[in-house]
Structure formats: C-alpha cells, structure tokens
What we know:
The chain is mainly alpha-helical.
Amino acid sequence: MKFASAAGSAVRVRLAPSPTGTLHIGTARTAMFNWLFARRQGGQFLLRIEDTDSARSKPEYTANILEGLQWLGLDWDGEPVIQSERIGEHRAAIQQLLDSGHAYRCFASEAELTAMREQQAAHKQAPRYDNRHRDLSAEQQQAYIAEGRQATIRFRIADAASITWSDLVRGEMAWKGSDLGGDMVIARRAPADQIGDPLYNLVVVVDDISMAISHVIRGEDHIANTAKQLLLYQALAAEPPVFAHTPLILNQEGKKLSKRDGVTSVSEFRAMGYTAEALANYMTLLGWSPPEGMGERFSLAEAAAVFDFERVNRAGARFDWEKLNWLNGQVLHGLGPESLRQQLLPLWAEHGWGTEPGSAWADPAWQIDLCSLIGPSLTLLADGVEQARPFFTTPELEQAAETQLANDGARAALEALLESLLKLLPEAPLEADQAQALLLEAAMAAGVKKGVIMKTLRAALLGSLQGPDLLTTWLLLHRSGADRVRISRCL
Ligand code: GLU
C-alpha cells in the first residue's frame, strides 16, 4: 500500500547511526527497511551521523558505517547530515522550550539524585525523577545559583499525559506520561546562565523536524523514546512523523544479538566471506516476510518493488546462520565462473596466488576453469581460497594419502603413469579422453583396477583422498606442470 507522509508530502526517511562503533547488523537492517521503504515510495533515504557524543564518536567509525552501507548497496540521497554541526539549532530549540515553560532548570545534584534513586529502590519503586525542581520559585533558584550549583534542563512530562500513535508495524500504541520516568533531561548540567550539551531525544526531534522526515523507522528498543519525542513535537508545535518500530534481531537463545554473540558488524561478515548480495538478502528476511510466491532469494531491487510494513513481523527475528549460509551459497553458485574469479582474485592475491606473470596460474582461462570446478561447492567466498589452495601450492600428504601411496600395486601404476606423462610434450594440453586412456594404460601395466590408479593419483596430486572431480583437477594441474612434479615427489 502506498501512502503519503503525515504532512501529505513526499516520503523522507533517515538512518541516524551513532559513530561509536562499526556498522552493526541491527543498524544495517534498520537501514535496509528505511531504504526499501524509500525506494518503494519513490522517496528519499537520508543519512544523519549522530556524533554528539564526542568522547566515543570516531571518524573511522563513520567511515566504516558509510563503507558498509555502500557495500550492501544502500545508497543514500544527498550529503550525510552531521549532527554536531547543528548544535546551535538544538540550543535554540531548548531556549524556546524554556521560554514557553515546557522546560526548566533542575539544580538537583548528582548526590541528591542518587539518594532519591536509592530510596525508590528501597521501597521497590521504579526509578524516576520525582520532579522536585519543577516549580522552584525565583528565590529558590537564586539561592541554588548563589551556592554555585549547576543545572540540567528538564522537559516537563505530565503524569496524566496520554500519548498515542499508530505504529506502522505495531498498530495502535498508547503510553501514559507517568510511565516515562518523570521530567526528562534534555541538556546536560552546565552553569545556570548557559545551555549544556543537548541530549538524544531533543536533538533527534529537532533534526527530524529540520530534515522534514516523514517516517521514522527504527528498532523497537526506541519505543519509549518515541513516546517522549511525541511530547516534544507537541511542545515545539511541529507535526510528528509516522513511526515504524521494527523487531529486534535475536540470537539463538532469543536474546538481543550483542557483541557477545561474536560476529555482529557488517565488516566482519564481509571479512568472513559473505557476499553483499547474500547478506542484504538475508537482512530483509530478518523481520519481513516476502509476498507469497516470491521465495527467499531475491535482489534488493526486487524486494524494494514490493516492500511494505504490513509484512513486517512484530516478533523478534532470530538470527539463522544456516539460512544465511544457504543464501550465500546460492549467490556464489549463481555468479558464473568469471564473476566468481573477479571476487576471488583479491583474496588469492593476499596469498600471492594467481599473479605470477606468464604462469598458468595467472592465465585467466585457467583461473576460470578452476572457478568452474570449485564454484558449486562454495558456501563462503573464503572457501574459494581454501579450495583453490592445492591448485596454487603443493599440499602436504595426509596420512590416508601416504597409506594409499605405500600400496605396491598403486605405486607401480603411478610409476607407469608418470612415464607416459613424461613422454608428452610439456606444453601440449592434455585432453580428457587422452587422460582417461593414460589411466587405463597405467592400470593395465601395473595389473590393478582403474579405481586404484584413480585413488592413488588423487593422493599424489592433492595429498588427500578427498577433493573435487579428479579428471578436471588433473587437467588443471597438468596445465601448470604440477601433476608431474607432485607425482614424482611420491615415488
Ligand atoms: N543514534 C540513534 C541510534 O543509533 C538513532 C536512533 C533513531 O533512529 O532515532 O540508536
């Protein structure tokens, strides 16, 4: 269903990451839903870097976040807005709230507030600010200032306030002012003639108003913030956006996915060998059900063509490694050998493989044939390194291979095979039927079954009794001359 924003104007959504860490999978999934919605509605997907926590924000995290979004294919519109550059506007809004009586200075010291919370805990009450400085007289204020006390700025939250909104995911929502913990701090402690650092709920509202955001799509851990923010919209006489709170990503135990679960940042998934396409595809499935008949494997553009919030689930989305691996395998298998080669070349190059000028290993045709051979069995791109390893470097002999090679008949067959191989011109390509004939000949010469020579050849070439199709493996190794070298070393 297409719908217009609250104000009836174009759809404008935003992702508002804090650059205090690398791009988390949860943030990336929020980005995904924002992007899908914007693209479906023909709207704008904006970025705002929430870097007001100067102690924890780092430029390298901003770079990591932008790079991760780009890699996933989540292109944003316009230049990212930098929150810290807008502090003047945040302070002006706080001043406006002070002037209109919606906000006031609270002189309660840290020690007094701690004592208040301890009292509440002792009485088994939920922690909340008891609004003690809400209606100080001018004299009381002067007395605190004379004492040299600093003040936070708090926004009044009437206990009786009733806050409702129609959430695109969760339906009708209702909160009471009394559930919000008392009057909320919107600016940190500072001398009473100043406005201290503005805080999250206030700055988000000011920025969302200023950026004309029509829909706020974010994780359900922000629901209580939404209730508070709606009161701020009212106090600032601004039309609120439409809200959509998306389900959290859960680990196997059903708890919110966190650093303790190991891999959580997009760059880590990338380093493990997941493709952007599979990860993006998987993230859309974390909390959204595609329409009937669409299956689970699709591109971002295909998802954007049908995305809506009616198919976003309310329940948390459990992270399912098996499904992600399956999708990644599907993407890799569908790539085709040349595209797979393009993706693997930089990973191979890290090992110094595939770059030796003039060698078979650097020959694109050889590399494409290698990709055709290993491609169908890859789950992660990184598997394309492990599976290519015995084609670029000589593997050690495993115990089972040694045992096979120690067998007398097997050894004789391998000797016969090497003899015929050495008679071939080194640069002449070996064809499949010719190779088959050589195997038969060698088996006959040594008086063993063809199966024995095949098993032995595999042991000699790969150092293992396992591996991909033997004939193709051999033909590839023959092109780089490795077959003769590897057989010789076993005799
Ligand atoms: N910087 C906030 C966060 O990363 C933004 C939340 C919001 O979308 O309002 O959680």
